[in-house]
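We close this part of the discussion by returning to an individual protein. The amino acid sequence and the backbone structure tokens for this protein are reproduced below:
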Amino acid sequence: MTKIVFLSFVINKLLMYYAFERRKNMLNQIVLVGRLVRDPELKEFEGGYKYTNITLAVPRSYKNVDGEYDTDFIDCKLWDGIAENATEFCKKGDLLGIKGRIQTSNYEKDGETKYVTELIAEKITFLSSGKHKQEAGD
């Protein structure tokens, strides 16, 4: 997993360097590798749009002052086909790679403006080996 995280880090750095050097282009791209915190549940809007919200547990690459690795829990939104596939094929604990973008929004609740920042998945890659899924089916 460390090699995958490092490769994602290098790709992100190269993309950011390229965007910075061109100065014309801005870049909003995130690559995460982490484990699903819970089983995804498919939901549907009245208009037929399907989505699911998932949370990935992503360990940090360095130790804290206590000598332990902290973990970030990152909320992601998956739409339509990506949401359907994740709901069908992914379970709690599975290792996923997600490429997407950060999206911000806000809404009013009880007269107060609430702000939301979430990762919108554009592509997911199932990184868990199929071994434990085959064993679960036997």
Observations:
- The longest strand covers residues 95-109.
- The chain is about 30% helix and 45% strand.
- Residues 32-130 form a domain with the OB fold (Dihydrolipoamide Acetyltransferase, E2P) fold (CATH 2.40.50.140).
- Residues 132-138 have pLDDT under 50 and may be disordered.
